[in-house]
Description:
4-stranded antiparallel sheet; 6-stranded antiparallel sheet
Amino acid sequence: FSMQMEGEFAGIGATIPAGAWPAGDTRPPTISVFAFAEEPEMPEGAQISGDMVDFGPDGIVFNSPVAVTVPLGTLRSGFLYRVHKYDASVSPPWVEKMGSRSAIDGSAANPPTSITGETTSFSPYGAIESPAPPPPPTSTTTPTEEEDGGRS
């Protein structure tokens, strides 16, 4: 099943495949958007992009991965955006959630307004912006004297 927000946050939500919800867990799913009053500790060069989304019930563990979609703020060229889980028990309190759709380059044409990642539990999630790694160096080779027949 799918739970999606409406209005300003249309498209933000979670998709839970059949059989993923733990048998016997009768707690209802919940979803709410929030912003930290004070930004928590972040990895070097990183920051929260957009609002955070609290998916509940907090701590539920699924039988198979579910997709969570969170809002993105304004994208910037030279940065990558990925879905992270907020976990106050680790430092810094962010755990990247990978999935085939979880990394977005900030220089993309027609930038998206949300990003999706996969997880096996519900907690607060958000998009984290971090500097893109530099491109690999390009190598050019100059022929050695032996290779060019001594013409150098």
